[in-house]
Write a structure and sequence with these properties.
74 residues; mainly alpha
Length: 74
């Protein structure tokens, strides 16, 4: 197998795993406790709208994903 095809295969597997994890998150996301309900998540409720920005949840998920990727690259 040529080196170019080996790299394309690794990229396709990585993309597939990312899509799989996103799918799991969308399927089971509402069953994970405290997800989106952490202190620091912004919720503004108006008369006709609700604005929701989960900033702390996003930071924690980013940290977890970064750590996983860091350990997978070693």
């Amino acid at each position: 197998m040529s080196p170019g095809l080996h790299e394309i295969g690794k990229i396709l597997i990585s993309i597939s795993l990312i899509i799989f994890v996103i799918g799991l998150f969308l399927f089971f996301g509402n069953k994970i406790p405290l997800l989106g309900k952490l202190p620091g998540d912004i919720v503004l409720k108006g008369k006709n709208f609700i604005f929701y920005f989960p900033i702390v949840t996003s930071l924690i998920l980013s940290l977890i994903i970064s750590l996983i990727l860091y350990f997978l690259r070693k």
